[in-house]
Amino acid sequence: MANNDMKIFHSSSTFFTFLFLLLLSLFFSSGRCDLQSNYYSESCPRAEEIIKEQVTQIFHKQYHTAISWLRNIFHDCMVESCDASVLLDNKDGIESEKNSPRSFGMRNFGPIDRIKEALEKECPQTVSCADIVALSAREGTVLLGGPYVEMKTGRRDSKVSFLDQVESSIPNFNDSMPVVLSRFNSVGLDDEATVALLGAHSVGRVHCLNIVGRLYPTVDPTLNPTRAAYLKKRCPTPEPDPKKVQYSRTDLLTPAVLDNLYYKNILRGEGLLTIDAELATDNRTAAFVEKMAADNDYFHQQFARALLILSEINPLTGHQGEIRKKCRFVNQD
Length: 333
Known about the structure:
InterPro entries: Haem_peroxidase, Haem_peroxidase_sf, Peroxidase_pln, Secretory_peroxidase. The chain is mostly helical.
């Protein structure tokens, strides 16, 4: 190689080395790093075991908590980040995301406090509330008969709430399918994963407030008449009291099992919410509904994939955010 060529080569090499180091420096100075498998293996070796123990104990006292944990991760990660902002209460200028109409019916936050207390005794201010949200959803899924999901950890907790973003981030029960798919697609969930994630409606219950629009003043013609008659008994007025727990179980046969009966019900015209019913008629989702209705293992595989994607939406890591001492409140400096 000629001397001039060598000089150019060394000059270019030096430049690209400098550029690489600069970018590396900016990356680490931003405080971002990836989630990791077994993140707490040294700082709190029993962290995941403690979460599993607590979740199991709480579940056997009241299985509905597992359903709440699934809803927690959805409402947390869909709004800005998987950062436990959904757990924050109103205090010191924080306006809780729980105040949003989209959070109607969310409850059972006490068990999260109990899990956090157990972890604080073992490893003070080490395990984030955001990781508790993610891992409790994972363990709850298993207890409901669903798949086990290998989740990475290392999330940190937000110091702020995102109340103003909730309504634009969480699909409403009567949104059209294009709107629902658009919101899920925007955070990395493709159409197939969206159909699978909505399979969480296989467990739990739907408040009358969210289904009376399909019953009154006339019954939605896409709703199975037999199911409509049953729902009218459960929800006898078009204006239910939102302070009362008036509801119908989404699945009458296996209400505490995360299974594909949800999709079978949809194909029979028994989906309760507008978005449930539209899954079977929209050409982007109908084929996935039929396939999941026919194969529970396939549903579980896709649900596991969807839950993993959801759990890794824009997490705070490294030096971002904080590790809250109590999940309902930011730390006091």
